[in-house]
Specification:
The chain is of the alpha/beta class and 402 residues long. The protein has 2 domains: 36-118, 2-Layer Sandwich (Alpha-Beta Plaits); 124-395, Dihydropteroate synthase-like (TIM Barrel, Alpha-Beta Barrel). 42% of the residues lie in helices and 15% in strands. It has 14 helices and 13 strands. The chain has helices spanning 11-20, 25-31, 47-59, 86-97, 103-118, 159-171, 193-207, 222-231, 245-254, 279-296, 316-324, 344-350, 358-370, 381-395; strands at residues 37-45, 63-65, 78-85, 124-125, 131-132, 138-144, 176-180, 215-218, 235-238, 258-261, 304-307, 337-339, 375-378. It has an 8-stranded parallel beta sheet with strand order 11-10-9-8-7-6-13-12. The protein has a 3-stranded antiparallel beta sheet with strand order 1-3-2. A two-stranded antiparallel sheet has the order 4-5. The protein starts with 10 loop residues before the first helix and ends in a 7-residue tail after the last helix.
């Protein structure tokens, strides 16, 4: 006899394993939810809620770690670490619904977060009626229409070069082309709406009929986004997290998918000694709040993605922690976009300049994809696409890209 630990990707894989053991067919659906175990951090709850959560989870066979003084009343609030299978979370719902203090909503939220962790996000619907699904890792190729890009890849005002790049990226497997006209490197100076439109609009107009994949506009300005959408862009990549109500209204009106990114400060000051008590928790809360704000402003939740903003107001250790724990952002239920390509944290680790960070970029991209990223934003599309073919084969059991 031999014993080994068996790991599973999702509920369907568990069902397959149970079926292979030749268990009674009716038992497969009953037992599979028992194999999905979750540790859920419930933050900042009052002591009575913590105690009720503890007792409720114990009653269904789970458990919860709470502050030792929750029962003494010596604290005003505490965090609770709930430990349970999906079946136990579901079994706890009827009991939690009978409790005071709004715990019924908390029970629903715990189950929703658990289900989000394993599900594939819904496809994006583009204005022309086509869709982008997330049953494989999507590649977003970067075209910087600037002369001061940190990575040295900016095409400045060379429209022909931008067109060549877009066509080349599509042929190398890009799923989206991301066009930006304002550098967001540390210490970068902002540009005017007129200047940014003057940089990006000619490029979008010149590539929209030459490629079949969608174009994303990387901007913080609603006027730039509107001009880009009118010219043929169908996605908005917003590094300021849709914090502008006018931008939210525009994205809602135009029905374009939108990426909500976290940035601490502005490009001019974001790397001036950024600090976090809990980098993942703080950014998770920010993104969740911005999702709620975007939905309240009329954007369909299914049209949103989130980006933790690697390098945007983060230290080396913050960037590494975010990539290592990226899967936690899956509880938000939205596709995760991430850009690690050629960034300074790779240079800090390897000691190499931006133009020699390909291998480091691929390592970070593959790790991010395995940890839950749905969209990889990159400069080196061909190499990244080839690397992600292997990642997708492992992650999704897909043997080829379309």
């Amino acid at each position: 006899m031999k014993v080994r630990v068996r790991t599973f990707r999702d509920l369907e894989e568990i069902k397959e394993q149970i079926t292979e053991i030749h268990t009674e067919e009716i038992a497969v659906g009953i037992m599979a939810p028992k194999a999905l175990h979750f540790t859920l951090l419930v933050e900042d709850v009052r002591p009575p809620i913590a105690i009720i959560l503890k007792e409720t989870m114990l009653a269904v066979g789970g458990d919860a770690a709470i502050h030792r003084n929750a029962i003494t009343g010596k604290i005003d609030s505490c965090d609770v670490l709930v430990m349970a299978t999906r079946k136990q979370l579901k079994s706890a719902l009827p009991n939690l619904k009978m409790q005071p203090f709004g715990i019924d909503k908390l029970g629903v939220e715990m189950l929703r977060a658990a289900d989000n962790y394993y599900k594939i996000p819904e496809p994006w619907k583009l204005p022309d009626g086509t869709e982008i699904s997330f049953d494989k890792t999507r590649v977003m190729g970067i075209i910087n229409v600037t002369s001061d890009s940190f990575s040295g890849d900016g095409v400045a005002d060379d429209i022909n070069r931008a067109v060549e790049l877009a066509i080349e990226m599509e042929s190398n497997g890009a799923d989206i082309i991301d066009v930006g006209g304002e550098s967001t490197r540390p210490k970068a100076e902002p540009v005017t709406e007129k200047e940014e439109i003057g940089r990006t609009l000619p490029v979008i107009k010149n590539i929209v009929d030459k490629i079949k994949i969608p174009i994303s506009i990387d901007t913080t300005k609603p006027a730039v986004a509107k001009a880009a959408i009118d010219a043929g862009a169908s996605i908005v990549n917003n590094v300021t997290g849709l914090s502008n109500n006018e931008m939210i209204a525009l994205c809602a009106q135009e029905k374009v998918p939108s990426i909500i990114m976290h940035m601490k400060g502005t490009p001019r000051n974001m790397q001036d000694n950024p600090r976090y008590d809990d980098v993942v928790g703080e950014i998770m809360h920010y993104l969740a709040n911005q999702i709620d704000k975007a939905i309240a402003g009329g954007i369909d939740e299914r049209q949103l993605a989130v980006d933790p903003g690697i390098g945007f107001g983060k230290r080396l250790e913050d960037n590494l922690e975010l990539i290592r724990r990226l899967s936690e952002f899956r509880t938000l239920g939205r596709p995760i976009a991430i850009g690690t390509s050629r960034k300074s944290f790779i240079g800090t680790i390897t000691g190499l300049p931006a133009n020699r960070r390909l291998e480091g970029s691929l390592g970070a991209a593959c790790t991010a994809a395995l940890n839950g990223a749905s969209i990889i934003r990159c400069h080196d599309v061909n190499e990244t696409t080839l690397a992600l073919q292997i990642v997708d084969a492992i992650k999704y059991n897909k043997l080829h890209r379309e």
